[in-house]
């Protein structure tokens, strides 16, 4: 019993630190860029964007907007991590550029509210 409780506790702590990183001199943290910059990058480029989800267009597809423009984003339900987001909330998303013949979108790996 104690072993299983300890395993769950350790897994919980580790899951909260998955996106932790050092930000400061010498850091390799990805800087926030604009939608306009992101859609010009190559396939599979890692990006961090800050803006708003404007509307949901399909089950896991949303229109994301910042001051430079709009882009479609794909966010899996579990990536919301029990966070409620409205069009008025500023969020930071990280993920990768996904290009096909007709559009560029961002496949989101992490989402957080900006305070």
TrEMBL record:
Alphabetized InterPro entries for the sequence: BOBF_sf, CarO-like
Residues spanning the signal sequence: 1-20
Q: Which UniProt keywords apply?
A: Signal
Q: Pfam families under this entry?
A: BOF (PF04076)
Name of the protein: NirD/YgiW/YdeI family stress tolerance protein
